[in-house]
Structure formats: structure tokens, C-alpha cells
Amino acid sequence: MDQDLKKVAAGVGRFFAYALLAAFPVLMLRQDILVLGNAVGEDSLVEACQLALLGLSALAFALLAWCRADDRRFAALAAVFFACMLIRENDAVFDQALFHGAWKYLVAPLVIASLVWALRDARALLAGIARFLAAHAGTMMLLGLAILLCFSRLFGMTEIWAAVLGDGYVRTAKNAIEETGELLGYSVILAASLRYLAQRVRAQVRERRGLGKVAGTRLAAERRL
Questions:
Q1: Which of 74, 115, 150, 219 is most buried by its number of CB atoms within 10 A?
Q2: pLDDT in tens, 126-176
């Protein structure tokens, strides 16, 4: 009975956490449109939140690579992947600061170097990917990527909203829909990144405690002898 109540309570807690996760992008859009009065462009709050969530996702996997040697190949590759996405999202900044398309030349060496390093131990890399995909956080990550790369792009297609809005079509509406969908994807991705980081760190703590108990038992047995 008590265990069932705990599971139900945990499920209710997860629902409210997911509800906040889903509401966050809409609240940021509301701030942009109704408070800041911008067109959800490059300087919008929604865009800034996207960059922040991407950076935090990259940092989460970088921390995982630092904390756990058995996850290092996969986690470092994931961190570089999200770092490259962050660079791509800042392409307009690099276009102005350097030259048009500069982000590609920044991303290319990172991708090549990280792949070469990760594939030096392909077995550890594959094991890390498999472990991640088998976890609940892995399923959440796949959902976040699907929202980001598929749903937001398709749902934000210009021809759809031009047909729906007709003569009332304005690009701000299309931007708002697409960018808010992207922010939802980034939110789910960050939640998955943090969840997996916490899971693997907790597992490491339990492993160390287990090794400590085993070592303590052996030492006590040796002393009795």
C-alpha cells in the first residue's frame, strides 16, 4: 500500500514537472510578444532561452564525461554535438563578426576531432550510447530531438501558416510558432541531459559505497584472522 502511494505520488510529481516544462516555452513567448513587443527574432527572449538551454545541455554531458570514465567517449561526443548546435544557432553573430558561413568552419574541426577521439575506443562509445538509449532519459532525449528537428520545422512551415492566415499572414506569427516549438524541444533535451547526469552520478556514488563496504568487510575478516 505504502509503495503504491509512493509510486502514485511520484507519478503526480512527474506530471507537474512535465507540465511546467511544456508551459515554459509559451510563457517565454508571451513575454516576447506582450511585454517586450518584439517579433521573436534573433534578439528575442525565446531565442536567448534556446541558446541558454543548449549551452546547459552541452555542459551536462561535459560534466558526465568528467565524472564517469565509462561514459566518457559517448558523453564527450554528445557535449560536442550540442556545442556545435549552439554555434549553429549563433550563425548570424559569426556572420557579422567573421564572414558569411563562418560557423561551418568552426564546427568542422570540432566534429572531426571528437569523432576521431571517440572512435579510438569504439566499443566503449557503443556501450555508452546503448546505456543511454536504454535509460528513460534516452527516450526523453529522442523525443526532444524529434520535436526540435521534425515537429517544429514542419509545424512552422511558411506555406501552412500563409494558407491558414490568408491576407492576415505576418512573419511574426510563423516565427512565434516555429521558435516556440524549438524551445520546447530544447527544454526536453535539457531535462533529459540533467536526468541522465543525475542518474549516472547517483549510480557512481552507490558503486563507491558498495566497494567501500566490500573493502571494509575484507579488512575486518583479515583482522579476525
A1: 74
A2: 999 999 999 999 999 999 999 999 999 898 888 888 888 887 788 888 888
